[in-house]
Design brief:
By secondary structure, the protein is of the alpha+beta class. Helix content is 56%, strand content 17%. It is built from 3 helices and 6 strands, in the order ααββββββα. Strands 1-4-5 form a 3-stranded antiparallel sheet. A 3-stranded mixed sheet has the order 2-6-3, with no helix packed on it. Helix 1 runs antiparallel to helix 2 (93-111).
C-alpha cells in the first residue's frame, strides 16, 4: 500500500472550464447587484441629506418669521392710525417720521421672508388663508365671499403666518328667502 492519498480522477478540462465560467458569471452578477444597491444607497443618502438641509433652512425661516410676528401688531397699529389720521395733521413732519418707521418695519418683514397676503373684497373665502369675523351686507359682493378685509394676512413663502381677518358678504334677505324655499322643496 502506498502512503499517497487517493484522489478522484481529474474531471474533463472542458467541463471544468465550463463550471468555472458559470461560477464567474454568477459572481459578476452578484458584484453588479452589490454595486447597484450601493449606488441606490448613495443616491438615497444624498436625497436624505438634501431634504434635511432644506427642512433645516425652511425651519430656520419659519422660526425667524415667528420671531418677527410681534412686528405685525405694530404694523397693524400704524395702519389703523394712518387710516384715521385727520387731513389737517398729515402735513406735520413727525407724521413723515412715523411713515418712515412704518416703511422700515415693512422692509424688516420682507428681509425675513414675510410678505403680505393678497386679499381683496370679492375674493372667494379660503379658510386656510382667511379667518371670518362676521358678515356684512354688501350688494356688490357675492354672498360668502370676502366683503371687508379687517386685518391683513401674512405669508412666509407659501405658509400662512397669520390669516387675514375678513368679513364675508351676507346673502340679501330676498335671496336668502329664495334659497330657503329651494332647500325646503
Amino acid at each position: 500500500m502506498s502512503d499517497e492519498p487517493i484522489t478522484a480522477p481529474e474531471a474533463d478540462p472542458a467541463e471544468r472550464i465550463s463550471t468555472l465560467e458559470a461560477e464567474l458569471a454568477r459572481e459578476r452578477e452578484a458584484a453588479s447587484e452589490y454595486m447597484r444597491k450601493w449606488q441606490l444607497s448613495q443616491a438615497d443618502f444624498a436625497n436624505f441629506r438634501r431634504r434635511t438641509e432644506q427642512g433645516g433652512a425652511r425651519q430656520m425661516r419659519l422660526e425667524v418669521a415667528r420671531a418677527m410676528g410681534p412686528v405685525l401688531a405694530a404694523l397693524d397699529t400704524f395702519e389703523r392710525a394712518f387710516q384715521t389720521l385727520p387731513v389737517t395733521l398729515r402735513a406735520l413732519s413727525w407724521i413723515d417720521g412715523m411713515s418712515l418707521i412704518h416703511m422700515q418695519l415693512h422692509a424688516a418683514l420682507e428681509a425675513a421672508g414675510i410678505r403680505e397676503m393678497e386679499t381683496l373684497p370679492g375674493d372667494a373665502f379660503d379658510p386656510a388663508r382667511h379667518e371670518s369675523i362676521g358678515e356684512v351686507d354688501a350688494a356688490d359682493v357675492t354672498p360668502g365671499h370676502v366683503a371687508v378685509v379687517a386685518q391683513r394676512g401674512y405669508l412666509v413663502e407659501a405658509d400662512v403666518l397669520r390669516p387675514a381677518l375678513v368679513q364675508l358678504a351676507r346673502a340679501a334677505p330676498a335671496q336668502a328667502v329664495k334659497e330657503d324655499a329651494v332647500e325646503n322643496s
